[in-house]
């Protein structure tokens, strides 16, 4: 569904721009699961596979019920699915085990031995089921994987035996002495489990990358890239695994073959995900990935979707909050071509999603190198961006306006920028952005609105050193709006960054037009030190009742 991946792009680029990376929320490699909204009965059928009867599973030791030794277990539904489905099932099972291990540690702290034992039995079952399911759809497991499988199963059996002895005694001293052994065993299980999952995922990544690299079939390659993209959505750890196994190299090979042109958007989307980690960035540099992206962006025979996905990769690798972009020396060599192509993409964008990706890339580049702002000025980018903002079908979200105002803020340090702003009615746009409010109340959208307010105030403060811009801002009643943002916490959503930016803009305009302020506003918001005015405004939201 085209609308779904485009929607995903909004979140992804917004995250890249804010510097948010995948966060490891669990101590094990499996970070999170993406649950798909499906019919409730179908969801129940999916979950049923994982709700195994513990006693029966312990007796059967997870052995398949079959006559022939090599016959596949009909009761393991994952064997009916594709590689992508099998991987999702593996990750879901791993997530359940990881969660159970965390809960066992919590119950162990409270000495709830009966609960610890029942949960240990359940983990034992899940571990055996996971290994059995994985071996059902994987026929080329390594010896190292089998060794870790045996170590993990043996340690789980040992753990179950330990906890069983604990529920059979009431002697506090014995339980206290056994608790340290149980904690040690639990830690070992977590380590073995993490290493086994790492081996499983590395093995699957290797298989997918071999399919992509050596299959001449568009269908097989598309399926493998789709599975690989699904893996990248499971967290930074999986992206690191794929990068270490040469994922970036393989995907750029696809982007250099004309026979796979129809797969370029999907391939570039996967590359953007992998490049959120340092290993992916290093690989991109080694294979001249920047040059390849520049070639794609400047090639007019490619589709808009391909150009948009290439822009998404650029946005990811130039994120201002990443600490590992300094080595992108080749980017500077191709920056003018890339910036020119991105400006053209903004100008010709047929949808808000395409504009968002292209403008996000430009916004990040203006942080990446100051020369980019001069190139943008030469390309009349200011005029193009201001014109796009008047089209509500193109700049249709706070996220897009966030990218535009970021570019304006970074360009406003140039003296020539003021005349461009005046000609393009940019002061009016900045004034409108001071009123930016979230319509949905979504936390990400609210944060985007705060950034729009803050950066529009910063841009006004910088541009108001030009008397013509300051005069236009005063005529458009910017001063009353800035005062309201300073004095009313709800207007700025209690944002301190918006408050500081508004105080700075207000002080700059007050110098240029002192008659625009009442005496009380001047005495409280302009005359004192900035920090004193800030404290005064922030204290307005406190209650001393």
**Tally of DSSP β-strands:** 0
Quaternary form: single chain
What would you give as the CATH superfamily of one domain? Nucleotidyltransferases  domain 2
Portion in helices: over 70%
CATH class of one domain: Mainly Alpha
Between the first and last Cα atoms, what is the distance in angstroms? 54 Å
From the alpha-carbon coordinates, what is the Rg to the nearest angstrom?
Answer: 29 Å
Poorly predicted regions are 1-10, 12-37, 53-81
Q: What is the helix/strand order?
A: HHHHHHHHHHHHHHHHHHHHHHHHHHH
Determine the structural class based on helices, strands and strand pairing. mainly alpha
How large is the share of residues in beta strands?
under 5%
What structural keywords apply?
INSC protein, INSC_LBD_sf, 545 residues, ARM-type_fold, cytoskeletal anchor activity, 0% strand
């Amino acid at each position: 569904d085209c609308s779904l991946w485009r929607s995903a792009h909004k979140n992804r680029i917004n995250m890249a721009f804010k510097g948010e990376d995948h966060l490891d929320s669990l101590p094990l490699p499996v970070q999170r699961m993406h649950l798909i909204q499906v019919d409730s009965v179908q969801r129940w059928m999916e979950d049923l596979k994982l709700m195994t009867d513990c006693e029966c599973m312990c007796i059967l030791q997870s052995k398949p019920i079959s006559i022939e030794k090599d016959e596949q277990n009909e009761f393991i539904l994952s064997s009916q699915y594709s590689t992508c489905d099998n991987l999702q099932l593996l990750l879901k099972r791993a997530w359940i085990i990881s969660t159970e291990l965390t809960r066992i540690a919590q119950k162990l702290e409270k000495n709830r031995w009966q609960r610890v034992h029942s949960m240990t039995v359940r983990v034992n079952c899940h571990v055996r089921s996971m290994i059995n399911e994985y071996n059902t759809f994987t026929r080329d497991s390594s010896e190292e994987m089998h060794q870790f499988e045996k170590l993990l199963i043996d340690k789980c059996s040992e753990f179950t035996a330990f906890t069983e002895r604990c529920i059979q005694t009431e002697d506090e001293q014995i339980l206290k002495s056994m608790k340290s052994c149980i904690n040690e065993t639990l830690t070992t299980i977590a380590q073995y489990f993490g290493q086994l999952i790492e081996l499983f995922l590395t093995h699957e990544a290797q298989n997918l990358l071999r399919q992509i690299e050596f299959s001449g079939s568009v269908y097989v390659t598309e399926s493998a890239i789709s599975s690989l993209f699904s893996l990248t959505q499971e967290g930074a750890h999986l992206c690191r695994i794929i990068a270490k196994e040469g994922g970036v190299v393989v995907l750029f090979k696809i982007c250099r073959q004309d026979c796979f042109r129809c797969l370029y958007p999907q391939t570039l989307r996967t590359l953007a995900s992998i490049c959120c980690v340092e290993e992916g960035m290093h690989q991109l540099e080694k294979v001249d990935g920047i040059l390849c992206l520049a070639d794609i962006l400047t090639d007019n025979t490619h589709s808009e979707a391909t150009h948009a996905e290439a822009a998404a990769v650029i946005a990811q690798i130039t994120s201002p909050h990443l600490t590992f972009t300094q080595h992108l020396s080749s980017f500077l060599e191709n920056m003018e071509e890339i910036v020119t192509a991105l400006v053209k993409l903004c100008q010709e964008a047929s949808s808000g999603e395409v504009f968002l990706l292209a403008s996000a890339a430009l916004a990040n580049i203006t942080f990446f190198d100051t020369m980019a702002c001069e190139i943008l000025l030469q390309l009349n980018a200011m005029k193009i961006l201001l014109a796009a903002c008047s089209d509500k079908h193109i700049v249709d979200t706070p996220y897009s306006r966030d990218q535009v105002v970021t570019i304006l803020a970074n360009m406003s340090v140039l003296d020539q920028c003021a005349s461009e702003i005046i000609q393009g009615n940019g002061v009016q746009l900045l004034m409108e952005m001071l009123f930016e409010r979230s319509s949905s109340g979504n936390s990400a959208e609210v944060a985007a609105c705060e950034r729009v307010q803050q950066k529009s105030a910063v841009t006004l403060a910088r541009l108001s050193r030009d008397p013509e811009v300051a005069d236009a801002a005063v005529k458009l009643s910017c001063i009353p709006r800035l005062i309201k943002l300073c004095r009313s916490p709800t207007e700025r959503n209690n944002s301190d960054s918006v408050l500081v930016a508004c105080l700075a803009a207000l002080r700059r305009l007050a110098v240029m037009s002192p008659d625009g302020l009442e005496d009380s506003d001047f005495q409280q918001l302009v005359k004192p030190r900035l920090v004193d005015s800030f404290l005064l405004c922030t204290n307005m939201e406190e209650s001393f009742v």
